Amino acid sequence: MPVSNPEKMLTREEVLTHSSRESCWVVINNAAYDMTHFLDSHPGGPGIILKYGGRDATAAFEPIHPSDTLENHLKSEYHLGPVSGPVPEVEEDAKSKAPEVTPGEKKPTLGAIINIRDFELAAPKLLPPKSFAYFKAGAESEYTSQWNRDSWQAIRFRPRVLRPIEEIYTSTTILGNECSVPFFICPAGGGKLAHPKGEVLLTKAAAKHGVLHWISNVAGCSQKEMTAAKALGQNQCWQIYAMSDLAVTEKEIKQAVKDGFKGFCLTVDAIRAGKRERDMRMELDEDEAAIYSEEEDESFEKEPTVKRGAIWSSFDWVSFVKWIRTMTDLPVCVKGIQTWEDAKLCMEHGVHPWLSNHGGRQLEGAPSAAETLVSIRKHCPEVFDKCEVIADGGVLRGTDILKALCLGAKGVGLGRGFLYSLVFGEPGVNKAIRILKHEVEVGMALLGVTSIDQLNPSYVDTRGLAFASAFPRAHL
Ligand SMILES: Cc1cc2nc3c(=O)[nH]c(=O)nc-3n(C[C@H](O)[C@H](O)[C@H](O)COP(=O)(O)O)c2cc1C
Fold it and tell me: Where would I find the Cytochrome b5 heme-binding domain in this sequence (predicted)?
């Protein structure tokens, strides 16, 4: 039962007694919250809240929840009020702590990073294993996330020589937004697992370099914080997971329009959470597991790895477009297009195809964006004229970006690359952008082009893609 007088200062002793399924309170930033009625609605499951029952959960709560989460999702009667003294925290396991430096070992430094893969190699030495696993995880055996990378490599260039190359221009537009480079920051949740300030640092670095930032509606920072972090004239776009409570999503979209966001995408490849086993193993927690007896073990009955609320899965092409067009005339992408047939449907419905398999985190065995680009070119090349095709997945290099552009992509996104760079804060993201821009420039010069609009399919040979796809490399 919620306490009757929310103004009353709660005592530490009182809070400590509410640690069961029947009455579960947690303390966040010195205020107590009654979670009892929210336990079964929590997207991450009840176990994790019960673990913090009667305890201070601030350290576990803050990295994964926007600052307005409690205000938005927990009824005000369950906001119990301030607690008079410190409440004990739960001792975190080693998987939740940043690794200690062993004698003789050096922590990776930003100065030593020379490519995007270096950020990935540095991240597990700086991040708690759970956080790294969340970023790195792909679905099931992770061959799709690996295949995303391999498929860019399977494409070869056809460089042209003896062309005068003086200045190189990397600027372009993506959905009408001026961008200094043809790559952008993909929407991704979990930024605060990389850095306490989270996605606001991504947006600051993006502003500094004229890079488009596409912000996730399940980012660790709230919509308000992301808007506040926006520089004057900066282009930000908003990614939508249509949540099962559509009214919440509608409110966000309307707010994003008001706040001057420049475009939207609906992510459609995640109506269920992919089975990310790397992540699941990290989440296995003996304390949580002990809360249930063997008979009560309900794992695999519900979504096992979901970290967000349930998704509205009843849209079809017509109802989605009708719905979004009641709220905005801005450019809209459908993120998660994996076949030429669906790319064509995007064209027919006046939206843009975003070729993505969610970084291999959703359907194991899904095609890479490189493959989908090739099949659109073969079956319905008119899509490239009528729409702006966006691509992401497995991009590590400026040359990967150029290959996608040669095949018709207008903008190329990176998810993990920027999350790993965020481990070094804003300077890390700045460096990632500079590295990619440098690689794009060098690649363009060596290909024999001086501006992005000169890139076309004659600069690539995609024959190797079909052979390479026959031999995927699984990692788990
Ligand atoms: C940790 C993580 C969180 C992500 N969160 C979202 C998200 O909230 N919304 C979304 O549309 N895509 C999300 N994605 C997918 C990315 O937008 C993008 O499609 C993918 O990361 C591209 O592949 P890459 O990581 O190999 O670059 C996420 C990806 C990662 C790795």
Answer: 7-84
Residues tagged active-site? 241, 269, 358
The DSSP letter of residue 350 is T
361: CA distance to ligand 1 center in Å? 8
Residue nearest to atom 19 of ligand 1 (CA): 358
CA gap 60, 306 in Å, rounded:
17
Give me ligand 1 centre to Cα 12, in Å.
40
Angle at alpha carbon of residue 166, lines to 162 and 171, rounded to 5°: 115
In the chain, the amino acid numbered 140 is: E
Give the CA distances from residue 286 to residues 92, 281, 289, 296, in Å, rounded to whole numbers and listed in that order. 12, 11, 5, 15
Domains of the chain in start order, with CATH, are 12-82 (3.10.120.10), 134-468 (3.20.20.70)
pLDDT of 4: 47
What span, in angstroms and rounded, lies between the C-alpha atoms of 364 and 139?
A: 6
- ipTM score here? 1.00
**Count of all residues that appear for the chain in the document:** 476
Mean pLDDT for each consecutive 10-residue tract of the chain (476 residues)? 61 91 93 92 83 90 87 90 88 88 90 98 97 97 95 97 97 98 97 96 98 95 96 96 92 97 97 92 70 64 63 94 98 98 98 98 97 98 98 98 98 98 98 98 98 98 89 61
Atom 6, ligand 1: which residue's CA is nearest?
188
| DSSP for 1-30, written as a single string | ---S-TTSPBPHHHHHT-BSSSSBEEEETT
Rounded distance between C-alpha atoms, residue 151 and residue 403, angstroms: 10
Count other Cβ atoms within 10 Å, centred on residue 321: 19
CA 6 to the chain's CA centroid: 37
